[in-house]
Specification:
InterPro entries: EmrB-like, MFS, MFS_dom, MFS_trans_sf, Sugar_transporter_CS. By secondary structure, the protein is mainly alpha-helical. It has helices at residues 22-38, 42-54, 58-86, 88-107, 112-140, 144-175, 180-183, 185-199, 213-232, 240-262, 270-274, 276-306, 311-317, 320-339, 341-359, 368-371, 373-394, 403-439, 443-471, 476-479, and strands at residues 6-10, 203-204, 487-491. 77% of the residues lie in helices and 2% in strands. Strands 1-3-2 form a three-stranded antiparallel β-sheet. The chain is globular, with a radius of gyration of 21 Å. The termini are close together.
């Protein structure tokens, strides 16, 4: 593969030459999406054993999950711009190497602090890796049925990845050690690097590109303050620290918007998010992330702590969720082509909400097959209807030179939604379980907390359905990506 750059101009009258390795590239990019998504949940199953092994406090236990999602989500916009300007394949490969190194560090850690730092580093390098992968997908599959198929595969992997992480985490924890939930990433890294070298062409934005440093600082500190403020809410919403960090987060994000409206080359061009359809898709991605990352964590706690399942059994018990997602995905892909994305994006959240409401009826002496399994199947069916069209809609109408920034926003919405959701759900859990413990101590108080989280998650998904109905409007041809754009892409 030649590394020399040449320009191909896209226009409505000339299609870009298809990459002959595009389907192999899709496999590599989908594998990347799998690893960054499943790493948000793979340690969930292992957390009880890691907590005992390293002597983690409950707060440190939560931050093992939050550190990854927070670093990932906060740095994604910067990672997307690095991919656009520096080169998407180059960024992809550097992100892969750094992610693998951080995974090894986490797998060999000897303290809770070291583990949290390693997870944060994983998130930071994933923030380079994920937007580069999605941007590469965007410029590799530019139009038509092939693009729909590619995004359907990518969306299915994104939707199932969190649940796959739970299963894989259970297997590794049971038969090896919780440490292998981190060390296993080395395999994915090697495959990804070899695949990138063989099958993926370099691409980047043209012209004189400058980094928006002030924008990067304000959005990173703003999102970090917001998530940390919500994490403090478990000790009280009215404490000065909680209010201070939440206020600082909102203020910094407002400042970020002001900065982006003034600079010539913004970190996040506001036109990417102010579009009604894309804005609605980003909001839905955030809500879906809060459920897949936040609510699923507490479902695994219920399986292990209340139902007494081993890590392997708990991981296998979550398997119906990805099976339902992958089973419904082909139908969702056909429906997307025939009726468009809007009906799927309205009905999908309603089905997920139904599954979550079902889960809210769990009891301390309940049965997995009666109280958990049906709810997970409903969740998986609904998530398939959401994830298949979601990323396609979120990137519709995006010029190739902004592919990295837009792709970063899609991923950032998922991860920030997950970290915010986890913080909010933790606060709900602590408050509800402590109140329940007054009258029904022990396992019933835990299930009361988990039930409250599932109810809150269901309400959030109903809000997502309303968002889809209000924001995802237009003809099917308008909501799906066009066949090209008047832009220039540098291909290697």
């Amino acid at each position: 593969m030649s590394s020399s750059a040449h320009s191909t101009t896209l226009s409505s009258s000339s299609q870009p030459q298809a990459n002959p390795n595009r389907w192999r590239a899709l496999f590599v990019l989908s594998l990347t999406q799998l690893v960054v998504v499943l790493d948000g949940t793979i340690v969930n199953i292992a957390l009880p054993q890691a907590q005992l092994d390293l002597g983690l406090t409950d707060t440190e236990r939560q931050w093992v999950v939050t550190a990854y999602a927070l670093a990932f989500g906060s740095l994604l916009l910067l990672g997307g711009r690095i991919a656009d300007y520096w080169g998407r394949r180059r960024t992809f490969m550097v992100g892969m190497i750094g992610f693998g190194a951080a995974s090894v560090l986490g797998g060999l850690t000897q303290s809770g602090t070291e583990l949290i730092i390693a997870r944060g580093l994983q998130g930071a390098f994933a923030a380079m890796l994920a937007p580069a992968a999605l941007a590469l997908l965007t410029v590799t599959f530019t139009h038509g049925k092939e693009r729909n198929t590619a995004f359907a595969v990518f969306g299915t992997v994104a939707g199932a990845g969190a649940a796959v992480g739970l299963v894989l985490g259970g297997v590794l924890t049971e038969f090896a050690s919780w440490r292998w939930c981190l060390l296993v990433n080395v395999f994915f890294v090697i495959v990804g690097l070899v695949g990138a070298l063989l099958f993926i062409a370099e691409s980047k934005a043209e012209g004189d590109n400058r980094y928006d440093i002030l924008g990067a600082i304000t959005v990173t500190l703003g999102l970090g303050s917001l998530v940390y403020g919500f994490s403090l809410a478990e000790t009280g919403w009215g404490t000065p620290q909680t209010i201070g960090f939440l206020a600082a987060g909102v203020g910094l994000l407002v400042l970020f918007v002001v900065v982006e409206s003034k600079v010539a080359q913004p970190l996040l061009p506001l036109r990417v998010v102010v579009n009604r359809v894309r804005g609605g898709a980003f909001l839905m991605q955030a809500i879906a992330g809060s459920v897949m990352i936040g609510a699923m964590l507490y479902l695994t706690f219920h399986l292990q702590i209340v139902l007494g399942l081993s890590p392997l059994a708990a991981g296998l018990a979550t398997l119906p969720l990805p099976i339902a997602i992958t089973g419904v995905a082909p139908l969702a892909t056909r429906l997307l082509a025939s009726i468009g994305p809007r009906p799927l994006m309205i009905v999908g959240p309603i089905i997920v909400a139904a599954g979550l409401f079902y889960l809210s009826f769990i009891t301390a002496d309940g049965n997995y097959f009666a109280q958990v399994l049906p709810g997970m199947v409903l969740m998986g069916m609904g998530m398939a209807l959401i994830f298949i069209p979601l990323q396609n809609v979120a990137l519709s109408g995006i010029a190739p030179h902004e592919a990295g920034a837009a792709s970063a926003t899609v991923n950032a919405a998922m991860q920030i939604g997950g970290s915010l959701g986890l913080s909010i759900f933790t606060a709900i859990y602590v408050s509800t379980s402590e109140n329940a413990a007054i009258t029904t101590p022990g396992l019933p108080s835990l299930t009361a907390g988990y039930s409250a989280i599932f109810v809150a998650s269901a309400i959030a998904m109903l809000v997502a359905a309303v968002i889809a109905a209000v924001f995802i409007r237009g003809a099917k041809s308008e909501l799906m990506p066009s066949s090209g754009s008047d832009s220039v892409i540098h291909l290697g």
